[in-house]
Write a structure and sequence with these properties.
2 domains, Urease, subunit C, domain 1, binds N-(iminomethyl)-L-glutamic acid, eight-stranded mixed beta sheet, eight-stranded parallel beta sheet, TIM Barrel, alpha/beta, globular, binds fe (iii) ion
Length: about 400
């Protein structure tokens, strides 16, 4: 079925917008009074609504009568929304002066979520993922990456990834799963960090492939998690089996971004501690630097140096990192808007970071811009000025969200 949707006050097309480097707002590729021609869920043409209505006069028109800005459906390329329980006590403890790494050292933190998630059934986890995915969807996020990493045994990692796969059939959002078995070494594994990762690579990776659960492997490189050295062999095994790589890098200490570049990772995420050397390395590479302002707001640490990475020529995406520990809020646009304020990012840089640059971090070429051939995933906001969206810091909600050309 073919239809013409519009007129939108503004369509943010990102036509010709660059994958890397700084952006000016002219590069939003705004089409005023725009129309979007959709056929079988794919964008066939984007342009001036009036002329398109004449050219395709026999085509059905889905009229938009209100002030409206159409963005590409937002993409949250880093979340941990598959979890059970809460870590409100960590938040209170941190605010009382005990650091995130200190809580982990004392045996809490991520391990606490592992305990609570292991106790939950696959069905409960699935319901939790659907609930959180639908909340993101209502705010215009049509593609969501979801990590495992609170299972940390073969059986519990599989439970999480199966829950994510089943949730993907229940929500209208597209879910992209990632295996984060290398989150921390579980307390009940007898052996070294290297032995744990070897065990997971040998026994879990083949099951991920045979069940088709994920094509992506993540690791947390940090004190209290894994060293660059042990992750290096783990990633070699992953690459040999053709998995894509992504890294929790440079959150409190540097090291992870170098591993990301060496292994040709799709993305290096966090980077709050990255210095000049890491920024230059990332900017010269093809690795997407993913800023996670939600973790900065949850922990009270520095923001990812997004401005410097962009100015050095890098590709910056922005994600919510929604998780029970460091980033419990899960509101992508609020966080992206706050990052813009602190890092002095243009509207184009921020919106690129939550659309096509985030798609690139997931290796997805079919979404993130409103151009011919892209999926007709749209977040439509009730305003006639694109700038209003970040200005309202996440309070302006889309009044229509389209997935594959259909309003949901
Ligand atoms: O991205 N830093 C490591 N992993 C998550 C936090 C996980 C947790 O604390 O539960 C993050 O911030
Ligand atoms: Fe994370």
């Amino acid at each position: 079925m073919r239809k013409l949707i519009g007129p939108f006050s503004e369509v943010v097309s990102f036509e010709e917008a660059p994958l890397k480097g700084p952006m000016k707002d002219e590069q939003l590729g705004i089409i005023a009074n725009g129309g979007i021609l959709v056929s079988e869920g794919i964008i066939e043409q984007v342009g001036d609504f009036e002329s398109m209505a004449k050219e395709f006069s026999s085509t059905d028109i889905e009229e938009v009568t209100e002030a409206s800005v159409a963005l590409p459906g937002l993409i949250d390329c880093h979340t941990h929304i598959c979890f059970a329980g809460t870590r409100s006590k960590d938040f209170a403890m941190r605010n009382a002066g005990i650091s995130y790494l200190e809580i982990a050292k004392q045996g809490g933190g991520i391990w606490d979520s592992v305990t609570q998630t292991r106790e939950a059934s696959e069905d409960i986890l699935k319901q939790n993922v659907v609930m959180r995915a639908d909340k993101l969807l209502s705010r215009g996020v049509t593609t969501i990456e979801v990590k495992s990493g609170y299972g940390l045994s073969i059986e519990d990692e599989l439970k999480m990834l199966r829950a994510i796969a089943k949730a993907g059939k229940k929500t209208k959002a597209d879910l992209v799963s990632t295996c984060l078995a290398a989150h921390i070494k579980p307390k009940d594994f007898i052996g070294t960090h290297a032995q744990y990762l070897e065990y997971m690579a040998k026994n879990l990776f083949p099951l991920l492939k045979s069940e088709g659960l994920t094509n992506r492997i993540d690791a947390f490189i940090e004190d209290e998690a894994f060293s660059s050295e042990v992750v290096d062999s783990y990633f070699k095994s992953a690459r040999m089996m053709d998995f894509d790589i992504t890294v929790h890098a440079d959150q409190f200490h540097v090291g992870g971004s170098k591993v990301a570049v060496e292994h040709g990772a799709l993305s290096a995420d966090h980077l709050e501690a990255s210095g000049e050397e890491e920024i230059a390395l990332l900017a010269q590479s093809e690795v997407v630097a993913v800023a996670l302002p939600g973790a900065t707001l949850g922990l009270g640490c520095d923001f990812t140096p997004a401005r410097k990475i962009l100015d050095a020529g890098g590709c910056v995406a922005i994600a919510s990192d929604w998780n029970p520990g460091s980033a419990p809020m899960g509101n992508l646009l609020t966080q992206a808007s706050i990052l813009a304020t602190f890092q002095k990012m243009s509207t184009a840089e921020v919106l690129a970071g939550v659309t096509y640059r985030a798609a690139h971090a997931l290796g997805l070429k079919d979404r993130g811009k409103l151009n011919k051939g892209q999926l007709a995933d749209l977040a439509v906001f009730p305003t006639n000025d694109t700038r209003e969206i970040l200005y309202q810091q996440g309070e302006l909600l889309p009044f229509k969200v389209y997935k594959g050309g259909i309003v949901i």
